[in-house]
């Protein structure tokens, strides 16, 4: 069964830094503090509507959860307790900073039923981290990851593509470094320029020039292949679509169907490789996993159009037994 989250946003709560790209109020769509009463309300509503509770976590996102004053953090966790256990949700997921993890806080999280911890690594280049005012180092990410694993939590890592000062090689090296830490899950966030951020000012004066959506999609398509080939699930690729982001962004790498763009390129490259062994085929049938028919056809059928322009008519057909992001061609 697919995993799902009951998302509870804690906007910019607890975070001791303001990174170059960060405006959590826009990303989370919330500006007011989250209370234990909010947790109770959200979980109560979800308990009535979510059918697969055994694969659903209560998730505190949006801020650096373990940097919240301890009594506030435990109050939110306590409010979630009645919704765990038999006939309840399977655990609690939190997101935080690598430099806000130690044995003391991990012991508290374990006591209150936290099952998964996501770290905002963003980059594993100390130069890029410093340029974006992250306030932590790559070593902090590695140290926290090992500690989280030692306590038996599921580990998630988050990285960003196209950050201020980062090259495509930096992004590639970050992916390699994260793979070596053996996370269970990864999120990939292409950099979006939001209002009221330092990145907006850098963009306005020409200091920061974002890469194109097309280049970002190509980079992320390659990263998706690399993470998944190492058994790491990429649970998000692209910023969550919301009206707040679309209204408040001033540039950068946002597309409401960004993951779809990446998956389109993954199948295009795969089909291209298969076709390279053939001499001028006029048509081909592409057999793919039943869940991937749309992905193989491409976003807005762009792969069908791409190959048609090369004089090749493709027919995409489902076939059981073919893995996701693999295909078989017949002529």
How much of the sequence lies in strands comes to 15-25%
Which structural class best describes the helix and strand composition?
Answer: alpha/beta
Mean pLDDT: 93
Sketch the topology as an H/E string, one letter per element. EHHEHEHEHHEHEEHHEHEHEHHEE
Between the first and last Cα atoms, what is the distance in angstroms? 35 Å
Percent in helix: 25-40%
Task: Explain what the structure shows.
It is a single chain. By secondary structure, the chain is of the alpha/beta class. Helix 7 packs parallel to helix 9 (213-229). The mean pLDDT is 93. It has a seven-stranded parallel beta sheet with strand order 1-2-3-4-5-6-8, with helices on one face. Strands 11-10-12 form a three-stranded mixed beta sheet. Strands 7-9 form a two-stranded antiparallel ribbon. The chain has 13 helices and twelve strands. Strand 5 (154-161), helix 7 (168-180) and strand 6 form a beta-alpha-beta unit. The longest helix has 18 residues, at 258-275. Helices cover 40% and strands 21% of the residues.
Briefly summarize what is shown.
The chain is α/β, with parallel strands linked by helices and 331 residues long. Helices cover 40% and strands 21% of the residues.
């Amino acid at each position: 069964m697919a995993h799902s989250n009951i998302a509870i946003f804690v906007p910019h709560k607890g975070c001791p830094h303001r990174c170059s790209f960060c405006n959590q109020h826009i990303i989370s769509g919330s500006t007011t503090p989250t209370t234990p009463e909010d947790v109770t309300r959200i979980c109560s509503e979800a308990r009535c509507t979510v059918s697969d509770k055994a694969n659903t976590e209560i998730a505190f996102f949006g801020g650096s959860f373990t940097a919240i004053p301890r009594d506030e953090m435990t109050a939110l966790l306590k409010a979630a307790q009645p919704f765990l256990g038999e006939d309840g949700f399977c655990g609690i997921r939190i997101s935080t900073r690598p430099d806000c993890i130690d044995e003391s806080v991990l012991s508290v999280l374990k006591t209150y039923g936290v099952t998964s911890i996501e770290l905002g690594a963003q980059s594993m280049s100390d130069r890029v981290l410093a340029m974006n005012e992250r306030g932590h180092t790559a070593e902090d990410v590695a140290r926290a990851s090992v500690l989280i694993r030692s306590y038996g939590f599921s580990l998630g890592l988050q990285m960003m593509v196209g950050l201020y000062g980062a090259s495509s090689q930096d992004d590639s090296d970050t992916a390699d470094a994260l793979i070596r830490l053996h996370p269970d899950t990864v999120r990939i966030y292409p950099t979006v320029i939001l209002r009221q951020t330092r990145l907006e000012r850098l963009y306005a004066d020409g200091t920061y020039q974002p890469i194109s959506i097309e280049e970002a999609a190509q980079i992320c398509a390659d990263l998706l292949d690399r993470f998944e080939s190492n058994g790491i699930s990429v649970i998000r690729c692209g910023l969550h679509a919301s009206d707040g982001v679309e209204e408040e962004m001033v540039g950068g790498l946002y597309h409401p169907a960004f993951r779809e763009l990446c998956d389109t390129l993954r199948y295009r490259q795969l089909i291209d490789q298969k076709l390279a062994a053939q001499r001028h085929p006029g048509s081909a049938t592409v057999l793919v996993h039943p869940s991937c028919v749309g992905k193989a056809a491409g976003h807005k059928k762009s792969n069908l159009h791409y190959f048609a322009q090369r004089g090749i008519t493709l027919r995409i057909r489902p076939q059981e037994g073919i893995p996701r992001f693999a295909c078989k061609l017949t002529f």
